[in-house]
Amino acid sequence: MLDPFRERAGVLNGEGAEDGAYVLLDTETHWSRTGGHWWWSRWSSPREVVHARLRRGDGQIDDWIVSGEDLDAQVASWRDGLFRHDGATYRVEWQDDEESERVRAEVFGLD
Asked: Is the pTM value of this prediction over 0.85?
């Protein structure tokens, strides 16, 4: 389900999108502590989540975690070429691997 969006960058466009707006998606594995203390903690089964980053045209960066039922809905939107955040819906043009790597480094400053 997440394979097409792993380590993926996109360019946002359409109504309300600022020039130079980018999105970057990274998958992460999360666990929750279900009980115990410190070294004898019990953990949930691992689950994949998406760490989303949005760089607005003015350079401001928002980041958040997408998980659970929201993740299923977002993936369906991403497949349709849409990106939803903060009540707004944008068209997204997903970049190839090489361009995604460039955006990660040059736009978001990540290695």
From this structure: yes
